């Protein structure tokens, strides 16, 4: 269980930097659908090649193609297609705030599918997490309330509903004996391809205008953000439950703020500090059984 907590921490650390990396890439000239598609197609290709060469998995069967395609379209195509498009019009911190609706959708959808009740403790944890993100990002929000802004906000939330479906659906796929590495590789490959197809019809990307910073942001998102980060996400999904790994969406805005302070010298607001504490409290409350199990196992080892 300690490996679960370590993987969760590393995943949150990685995903906490991706919102800013996406924003930088868009500012440096990348078009949203092409950059998102290229990122995930390349990442998926690398994971698939690695899996095939090391014989950890084979080419998908006809029966496996549908789950991989569906997961890729929802988890990568819809979730990140909407996020990349929206970050053209809203700040990355606000995109992170809206993305925090993901765990709420996951918990509600999982409870409905499994016909299980959401406990009061889970409701409290979800509420604390969302409240914390509001407190965290509120001091730095400086957006203009116009139609495009409202549309961008709605698009991110719609994307998170697809993210929730893909998360719950992926758990069922993994129960069929498919490895998390295989699912992650093929879903990124198919999801990235769907975004590149959209880009072909609606965009005209010009790679000659992309500078070194733009290419570095894309490389970071491919290797660290997608291959490593999403690999850890699916591993956690296989080892725990759909709600636990999805709570990275509560932690990532806090980490993004810390990154802004260290790299860009941004001053932290007292309200933001309070928000960070509330976020971590909410994550603990919603998943306290996993944390307690980890510490109990550690104590038993020390006694023995």
TrEMBL record:
<feature type="transmembrane region" description="Helical">
    <location>
        <begin position="147"/>
        <end position="169"/>
    </location>
</feature>
<feature type="transmembrane region" description="Helical">
    <location>
        <begin position="30"/>
        <end position="53"/>
    </location>
</feature>
<feature type="transmembrane region" description="Helical">
    <location>
        <begin position="123"/>
        <end position="141"/>
    </location>
</feature>
<keyword id="KW-0472">Membrane</keyword>
<feature type="transmembrane region" description="Helical">
    <location>
        <begin position="92"/>
        <end position="111"/>
    </location>
</feature>
<dbReference type="Pfam" id="PF00892">
    <property type="entry name" value="EamA"/>
</dbReference>
<dbReference type="InterPro" id="IPR050638">
    <property type="entry name" value="AA-Vitamin_Transporters"/>
</dbReference>
<feature type="transmembrane region" description="Helical">
    <location>
        <begin position="65"/>
        <end position="86"/>
    </location>
</feature>
<keyword id="KW-1003">Cell membrane</keyword>
<feature type="transmembrane region" description="Helical">
    <location>
        <begin position="213"/>
        <end position="236"/>
    </location>
</feature>
<dbReference type="InterPro" id="IPR000620">
    <property type="entry name" value="EamA_dom"/>
</dbReference>
<feature type="domain" description="EamA">
    <location>
        <begin position="5"/>
        <end position="137"/>
    </location>
</feature>
<comment type="similarity">
    <text>Belongs to the EamA transporter family.</text>
</comment>
<keyword id="KW-0812">Transmembrane</keyword>
<keyword id="KW-1133">Transmembrane helix</keyword>
<feature type="domain" description="EamA">
    <location>
        <begin position="152"/>
        <end position="287"/>
    </location>
</feature>
<dbReference type="InterPro" id="IPR037185">
    <property type="entry name" value="EmrE-like"/>
</dbReference>
<dbReference type="GO" id="GO:0005886">
    <property type="term" value="C:plasma membrane"/>
</dbReference>
<feature type="transmembrane region" description="Helical">
    <location>
        <begin position="181"/>
        <end position="201"/>
    </location>
</feature>
<feature type="transmembrane region" description="Helical">
    <location>
        <begin position="271"/>
        <end position="291"/>
    </location>
</feature>
<feature type="transmembrane region" description="Helical">
    <location>
        <begin position="248"/>
        <end position="265"/>
    </location>
</feature>
<protein>
    <submittedName>
        <fullName>EamA-like transporter family protein</fullName>
    </submittedName>
</protein>
């Amino acid at each position: 269980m300690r490996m679960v907590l370590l993987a969760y921490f590393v995943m949150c650390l990685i995903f906490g930097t991706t919102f800013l990396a996406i924003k930088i890439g868009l500012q440096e000239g990348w078009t949203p659908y092409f950059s998102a598609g290229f990122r995930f197609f390349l990442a998926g290709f690398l994971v698939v090649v690695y899996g095939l060469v090391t014989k950890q998995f084979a080419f998908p069967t006809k029966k496996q193609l549908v789950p991989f395609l569906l997961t890729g379209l929802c988890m990568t195509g819809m979730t990140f297609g909407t996020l990349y498009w929206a970050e053209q019009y809203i700040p990355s911190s606000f995109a992170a705030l809206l993305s925090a609706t993901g765990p709420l959708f996951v918990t509600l959808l999982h409870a409905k599918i499994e016909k299980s009740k959401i406990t009061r403790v889970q409701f409290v944890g979800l509420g604390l997490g969302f409240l914390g993100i509001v407190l965290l990002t509120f001091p730095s929000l400086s957006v203009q309330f116009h139609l495009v802004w409202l549309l961008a906000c709605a698009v991110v939330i719609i994307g998170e509903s697809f993210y929730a479906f893909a998360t719950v659906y992926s758990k069922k796929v993994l129960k069929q004996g498919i490895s998390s590495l295989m699912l992650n590789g093929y879903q990124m490959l198919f999801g990235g391809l769907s975004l590149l197809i959209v880009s072909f019809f609606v965009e005209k990307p010009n790679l000659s205008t992309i500078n070194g910073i733009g290419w570095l942001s894309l490389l970071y998102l491919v290797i660290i953000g997608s291959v490593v980060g999403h690999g850890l996400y699916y591993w956690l999904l296989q080892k725990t439950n759909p709600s636990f790994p999805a709570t990275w969406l509560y932690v990532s805005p806090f980490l993004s703020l810390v990154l802004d302070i260290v790299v860009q010298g941004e001053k932290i607001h007292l309200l933001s500090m309070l928000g960070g504490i509330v976020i971590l409290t909410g994550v603990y409350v919603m998943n306290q059984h996993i944390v307690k199990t980890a510490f109990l196992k550690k104590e038993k080892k020390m006694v023995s």
